[in-house]
Automatic annotation (TrEMBL), chain A:
GO cellular component, one term: plasma membrane
Domain ABC transmembrane type-1: 92-307
UniProt keyword list: Cell membrane, Membrane, Transmembrane, Transmembrane helix, Transport
Region feature Disordered, mapped onto this chain: 1-28
Family annotation (Gene3D superfamilies): MetI-like
Any one Gene Ontology BP term: transmembrane transport
SUPFAM superfamilies the record matches: MalF N-terminal region-like, MetI-like
Protein's recorded name: Sugar ABC transporter permease
A Pfam family recorded for this sequence: BPD_transp_1
From TrEMBL, chain B:
PANTHER family to which the protein is assigned, alphabetical: ARABINOSE-BINDING PROTEIN-RELATED, SN-GLYCEROL-3-PHOSPHATE-BINDING PERIPLASMIC PROTEIN UGPB
UniProt keywords, alphabetically: Signal, Transport
Annotated Gene3D superfamilies: Periplasmic binding protein-like II
Primary localization class, coarse: other
Signal sequence coordinates: 1-27
GO cellular component: cell envelope
The keyword Transmembrane helix is assigned to this record: no
Localization terms from the record: Cell envelope
Name of this chain's protein: Sugar ABC transporter substrate-binding protein
The keyword Transport appears for this protein: yes
Similarity comment text for this entry: Belongs to the bacterial solute-binding protein 1 family.
């Protein structure tokens, strides 16, 4: 990940990277303009070859009828016309939205947990941090296998626990609706670690003097949390929100691995990317799949743009 | 995107990161075009000093030791052909193969199965074996006829089976004894099977044990009963589900579940039939001969025996087997064909059989499989070849397999009448078949 500001190596200037300091006034002397590009060239080349070019190709394929092994014929907007009339698009979009909403509930939880972990004088904070982060680095398939067992209707620990309090749990992964929710809960759980790390970093950058001042003024912990922590954390929350929405819209592996490919409710619980996979690699309709991929791409782009627009209303800048 | 002058570093990172993550959504969907030319089958057994380096694509790690023995024996004949074995787990094997085929980078020799042979053969991805057959290096008569047919598309043969599997009933004799039920000496009818299943379920209800189990895997369950009822799944490019025979084959499982002889489809989705069996909660499991390797070193192995499937209108079992096929775009075709021929031969298949992982397809090399579990009467699987029917496939089987998974549960659960569901399925399946 790079940021766009690669300062030219001007010898006269040293370390002007202080937070909130004025942006260095760039005197773009002709002999220096090439340098920044040289530095980012490897990365740009990689992105161009492995991301941008495939996007262009995919966009191209989405206007063709392409069989399992290539061999495209131009089909105009046929794929898109068929796609927007396909009830499965709206079904998978609905499931993806449900998944995303549930996973987003993890953000307030992560804010709460990150602030608890940041409490001064907390013992074993590092241990907790590792424990929360582990699910994020664990292999999704391994995570899915474990949760499959937990959700098992007859023998799973979840339903056994519910039975103790007199609730008869459903067959989580083979009941429509419950299946999507069950997968989303796992998605929430495995994303907590990443969100917390980002938020913890945000917390560390909040000047401690603010809390000291608040304490002197007699503010309670809860008041400090609401009036100092949350507002000053909004840039981090915004970042986590963007990443979570994008990742949620691309959910595939968890769904596929937890539900299993021969699960009767999978067709009713599929996500957008699963829909793409099924059309592209099971039904071998690569052109149609490319159209689905373009729709996912544009949807995510749109949602992200919308969030950047709305952030001005709630993200606290400096 | 946002024309703000002052953006916090974090927000800038968010922007950059979202651009990167966003684009990766599309990176999965690239690919090449152009189909390889399917020129006439050329074949000549190479000289012993042919030097080449070829790849061999397979999906089963369990069989790698036997494959390595095969290759060692192969290298005694062709010491300068270097074979690299690429193992890709089954779940990713076909997705990977498809991308390799599109970019003309298929392994020189690789495993093929029934549901996929039509797709690859009809798109000119495979080299026929006609040359080797004409030269007398491969004799199709040595292999089960149903499987030779499976790998013959439009009259052209692309491979011979390296192994085969049929379906039988794996029985947990300890549970049957505990339930106090008698098993048939030789053969049984549908009704007898259903009654036995219900009796066991009722006798051992307190232990949560079921007599038998259905499931969503056609090959081990409903395809067999459809054939036994005299029906077909796919015949001459049309779905067989609209026929009363096929529906009788489906009804078998609906009845079994309704009578309590089997767990429900939901239960079987959470815990598959083989898991019920290996956990000692299922007395009779309809399973393939490949299930034998799952029993190796298990506590259950001592109490297991095998019975033939019950007969309906006729006796039938599904047969399937993997074949070695040569890529049409291989640059080392001669070496790849030499290995294909060698692996089809008696010596290599005997080595496969001795490993116990699979039933080799070459006639007369199967005895070591039955000997690998002498008390379990594995002979049932070999006897079944006689009345076996090839796994139903078409040019793009995966598409209607997905329809089966989607629709049939409604029939098995009793949610809708079997005939209605089967008629719907036939209609949608015919539409999919028409597009092939």
């Amino acid at each position: 990940m790079t940021t766009s500001q690669t300062a030219p190596p001007a010898p006269a200037r040293t370390g002007s990277a202080g937070r909130g300091g004025p942006a260095p006034s760039r005197g773009p002397r002709p002999e220096h303009t090439l340098w920044p590009w040289l530095f980012v060239a490897p990365l740009v080349a990689g992105i161009a070859v492995f991301y941008l070019w495939p996007i262009v190709q995919t966009a191209g394929y989405s206007f063709t009828e392409t069989g399992p092994f290539g061999g495209s014929t131009f089909a105009g907007v046929d794929n898109y016309v068929a796609l927007f009339q396909d009830p499965e698009l709206y079904l998978s979009l609905g499931n993806t939205l449900l998944y995303t909403v549930i996973v987003l509930l993890g953000i307030p939880i992560a804010v709460g947990l990150a602030s608890l972990l940041n409490l001064p004088g907390l013992r074993f904070a590092a241990v907790y941090r590792v424990l929360f982060f582990l699910p994020y680095v664990a292999m999704p398939t391994a995570v899915a296998m474990v949760w499959r067992v937990i959700f098992n209707g007859d023998f799973g620990i979840l339903n056994r626990a519910l039975a103790v309090v007199g609730i008869e749990g459903p067959y989580w992964i083979s009941t429509p609706g419950a299946a999507t929710a069950a997968v989303a809960v796992v998605g929430l759980w495995s994303s907590l670690g990443f969100s917390m790390i980002v938020l913890a970093a945000g917390l560390k950058s909040i000047p401690p003097e603010l809390y000291e001042a608040a304490e002197l003024d007699g503010a309670t912990r809860w008041r400090q949390f609401r009036a100092i922590t949350v507002p000053l954390l909004t840039p981090s929350i915004f970042f986590v929100l963007i990443i979570t929405v994008i990742a949620s819209f691309q959910v595939f592996d968890l769904l596929y691995a937890i539900l299993g490919s021969s699960n009767p409710v999978l067709p009713r619980s599929m996500s957008l990317v699963y829909f793409f996979y099924r059309e592209g690699f099971v039904a071998n309709d690569k052109g149609y799949a490319a159209a689905i991929a373009m729709v996912i791409f544009l949807l995510i782009g749109l949602l992200t743009a919308l969030q950047f627009r709305l952030q001005r209303r709630w993200v606290h800048s400096d | 995107m946002t024309p703000t002058r002052r953006t916090s570093p974090l927000r800038r990172t968010a922007l950059a990161a979202s651009a990167v993550v966003l684009t990766s959504a599309l990176a999965a969907c690239g690919g090449g075009s152009g189909s390889p030319d399917a020129d006439a089958a050329e074949y000549a057994a190479p000289d012993a000093d042919l030097a080449a380096s070829i790849t061999y694509g397979v999906w089963d790690q369990n069989q790698v030791p036997a494959i390595e023995e095969n290759i060692a024996a192969f290298n005694e004949v062709y010491p300068d052909i270097d074979v690299t074995v690429n193992v890709t787990p089954f779940a990713e094997y076909w997705t990977k193969l498809q991308t390799q085929a599109s970019s003309e980078t298929l392994p020189d020799l690789f495993w093929m199965n029934g549901p996929n042979i039509g797709l690859y053969a009809s798109n000119g991805m495979l080299e026929p074996i006609t040359g080797a057959v004409e030269a007398g290096d491969i004799d199709p008569a040595n292999y089960p006829q149903a499987l030779v047919d499976l790998y013959t598309i439009d009259g052209v043969s692309y491979g011979v089976p390296k192994d085969f599997d049929t379906i039988g009933i794996w029985v947990n004799t300890a549970l049957v004894e505990q339930a106090g039920v008698e098993l048939p000496e030789d053969g049984w009818t549908w009704d007898e099977f259903q009654e036995t299943a219900v009796e066991i379920s009722e006798a051992l209800a307190d232990d949560g044990v079921y007599g038998a189990a259905g499931g969503m895997d056609g090959q081990t369950t409903y395809y067999n009963t459809i054939f036994q009822a005299g029906g077909t799944v796919v015949d001459d490019g049309a779905s067989g589900y609209a026929t009363p025979e096929a529906q009788a084959g489906l009804q078998f499982w609906t009845d079994l579940i309704a009578s309590g002889g089997s767990p429900s489809i939901q239960q079987l989705t959470d815990t598959t039939a083989d898991q019920w069996f290996t956990s000692g909660k299922l007395a009779m499991y309809w399973g393939g001969s490949w299930f034998r390797s799952a029993l190796t070193d298990s506590d259950l192995a001592e109490d297991v025996t095998v019975l033939p499937l019950p007969s309906g209108e006729e006796q039938a079992t599904v047969i399937h087997g993997v074949a070695n096929v040569v890529s049409a775009t291989s640059t080392e075709k001669q070496a790849a064909q030499a290995l294909q021929v060698f692996l089809a031969g008696q010596e290599a298949q005997q080595q496969q059989g001795d490993s116990g992982a699979v039933i080799p397809a070459f006639e007369g090399t199967q005895s070591s499989f039955t000997a690998s579990m002498p008390d379990a009467d594995l002979q049932v699987f070999l006897d079944a070849v006689e009345y076996s029917r090839p796994l139903p496939v078409s040019l793009n089987s995966a598409e209607w397999n997905a329809l089966e998974t989607e629709l049939l549960p409604q029939a098995f659960s009793g949610e809708r009448p079997v005939a209605d569901v089967a008629t719907d399925l036939a209609e949608q399946m015919d539409a999919a078949l028409a597009e092939e």
